[in-house]
Design the sequence.
């Protein structure tokens, strides 16, 4: 009998583990190894250079730029997405009429949820190509076209969107325009998530609050929001991952994939450029390892900060 | 746009609205008040504005796909094409090769999603319900794949696939079978993680009853446990279909066809190609048609299965 179990376990695990080891774990391990060499990627010659690649990272102007751009997305993408999603969820669930049964959700909230979720099922590439057309820097673009029609934008001087390296609030404008797309595509999903969490809060909690004379705003800020803490912190972590992965947008939408003039470089775009255009595979791997360490530290820190006692209803 | 000039009407202090009772205008404590009415109206307005911001660009893309190129340039903003030009789709389908890419994607996904689900639930089941040395180690190995950025593995993965292709061509670059295996491998991490927590919640008694009745472990899994895990399988299945349909980085890395090789690319790559080439060919309507073709299938699937998709995707994140 025990023998049979062992054979069964092995039989079930062999294939998935083998596949995973070969296509996921092994490349990661190799990357860590290559990061200590000066491998160019096309020849088989490689020399062990120790930590030289990592030292080089710190003095690399482009990497420093990309790092700060990543940090920008890391802060703004979760912040704006969660704020907007919470606001929408609030309106959806609290905005309805009040009657004896308490405050109800707004009329048609089901339909709104379906619509707001649309961008989530579209691929980043579809979203990027679509927004490329919306952001066109002439009258053919959706935004410039509309604004020109009502006279807010001079046809001679259209909004440049992703071709605009000029800083706004100290950050290149192109990054703000990319941020807008990320928020546009993410808000609906997190609204649905927050909505579900809000609805799982037992009704009698609200009833008690209303009996005590709390209005909808008090109820929201004093009861709903604190009880959503868990969900919000999970959302924050996921959005953090998404923020590190803005590469699709940069890849499709910005000139020379990280431009103009490197104004929208992020870690991933620098890494791909270094590996496949400049042919410095060893150095690119060092970037990847640095990014991985950064990601893991960040996830750990966020888990630690946001962790606290779970509230059971 | 209407050009009717509207009369602003006399505006003066004498027409100011009668003062309302001071307490009524305040937000806050409940009751049926103008404040609540106003808030309700505001909610609707804001929600409506956001809904339009989401839907309008989508409708604009679909409608532009039905215009002629001249019309796209002349009247980029109009939502109603002069004549419906379905041939744009035909052109994107054949000349833009989106038809081929579409079929490639379906072919790859048919294999990769099946494989992901099968292997993922097998591994998750064993890891969740059987104790053996190394169990935790393997579980954490799968888990670690969730946090590591894919870009890190890009270079060695490319090299590894290239080398495998030299030894065994069907697993080399630009091959469907290779992409199926790569998709499955990269989807395993989340699938195992998700199904693991699902199999843990299944009751022990039924499994024991099955074994007492003489079912083998394999049989127990396929005819008892897997059917019981159906809700979880649906969620993770939707997650994988969407995720792999929308995947663009792995194919861009691994599915480049050299000159003379058959084009085995997936639809995301076809779109990128269309959008990069538009500068040379300026086939605007074809590009819009391409975006529409990549977008509508997922949107339709979503609208039909919206409840499952919403709960599937949100369950994935809140586990």
Sequence:
């Amino acid at each position: 009998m025990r023998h049979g179990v062992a054979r069964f376990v092995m039989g079930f695990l062999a294939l998935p583990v083998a596949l995973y080891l070969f296509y996921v774990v092994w490349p990661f391990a190799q990357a860590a190894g290559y990061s200590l060499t000066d491998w160019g990627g096309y020849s088989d010659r490689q020399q062990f250079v120790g930590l030289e690649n990592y030292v080089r990272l710190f003095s690399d102007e482009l990497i420093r730029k990309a790092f700060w751009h990543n940090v920008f997305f890391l802060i703004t993408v979760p912040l704006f997405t969660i704020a907007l999603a919470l606001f929408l969820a609030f309106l959806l669930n609290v905005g309805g009429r009040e009657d004896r049964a308490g405050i109800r959700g707004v009329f048609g909230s089901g339909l709104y949820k379906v619509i707001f979720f649309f961008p989530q099922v579209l691929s980043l590439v579809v979203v990027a190509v679509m927004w490329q057309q919306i952001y066109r820097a002439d009258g053919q673009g959706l935004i410039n076209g509309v604004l020109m029609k009502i006279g807010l934008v001079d046809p001679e001087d259209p909004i440049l969107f992703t071709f605009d390296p000029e800083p706004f609030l100290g950050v290149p404008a192109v990054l703000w325009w990319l941020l807008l797309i990320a928020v546009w595509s993410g808000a609906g999903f997190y609204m649905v998530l927050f909505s579900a969490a809000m609805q799982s809060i037992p009704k009698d909690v609200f009833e008690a609050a209303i009996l005590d004379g709390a209005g909808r705003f008090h109820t929201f800020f004093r009861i709903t929001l604190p009880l959503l803490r868990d969900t919000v912190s999970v959302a924050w972590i996921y959005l953090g991952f998404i923020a590190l992965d803005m590469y699709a947008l940069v890849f499709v939408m910005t000139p020379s994939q990280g431009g103009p003039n490197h104004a929208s470089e992020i870690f991933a775009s620098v890494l791909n450029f270094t590996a496949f255009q400049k042919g410095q595979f060893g150095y690119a791997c060092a970037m990847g390892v640095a990014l991985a360490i950064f990601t893991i530290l960040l996830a750990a820190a966020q888990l630690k900060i946001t962790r606290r006692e779970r509230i059971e209803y | 746009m209407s050009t009717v000039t509207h009369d602003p009407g006399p505006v003066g202090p004498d027409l100011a609205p009668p003062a309302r009772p001071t307490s009524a205008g305040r937000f806050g404590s409940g009751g049926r008040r103008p404040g609540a009415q106003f808030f309700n109206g505001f909610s609707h307005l804001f929600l409506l504005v956001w809904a339009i911001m989401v839907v309008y660009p989508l409708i604009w893309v679909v409608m532009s796909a039905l215009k002629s190129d001249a019309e796209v340039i002349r009247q980029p903003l109009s939502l109603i094409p002069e004549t419906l030009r379905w041939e744009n789709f035909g052109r994107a389908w054949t000349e833009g090769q989106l038809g081929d890419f579409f079929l490639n994607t379906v072919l790859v996904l048919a294999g990769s999603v099946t494989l992901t689900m099968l292997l993922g639930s097998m591994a998750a089941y064993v890891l969740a319900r059987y104790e053996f040395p190394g169990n935790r180690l393997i579980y954490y190995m799968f888990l670690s794949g969730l946090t590591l950025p894919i870009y890190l593995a890009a270079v060695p993965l490319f090299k590894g696939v290239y080398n495998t292709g030299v030894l065994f061509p069907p697993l080399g670059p630009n091959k469907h079978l290779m992409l199926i295996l790569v998709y499955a491998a990269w989807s395993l991490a989340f699938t195992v993680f998700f199904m693991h927590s699902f199999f843990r919640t299944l009751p022990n008694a039924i499994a024991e009853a099955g074994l007492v009745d003489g079912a083998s472990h394999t049989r127990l899994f396929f005819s008892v446990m897997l059917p019981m895990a159906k809700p979880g399988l649906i969620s993770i299945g939707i997650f994988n279909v969407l995720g792999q349909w929308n995947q663009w980085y792995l194919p861009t890395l691994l599915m480049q066809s050299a000159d003379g090789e058959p084009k085995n690319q997936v639809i995301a790559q076809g779109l990128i190609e269309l959008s990069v080439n538009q500068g040379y060919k300026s086939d605007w309507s074809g590009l819009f048609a391409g975006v529409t073709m990549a977008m509508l299938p997922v949107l339709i699937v979503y609208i039909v299965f919206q409840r499952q998709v919403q709960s599937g995707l949100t369950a994935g994140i809140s586990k």
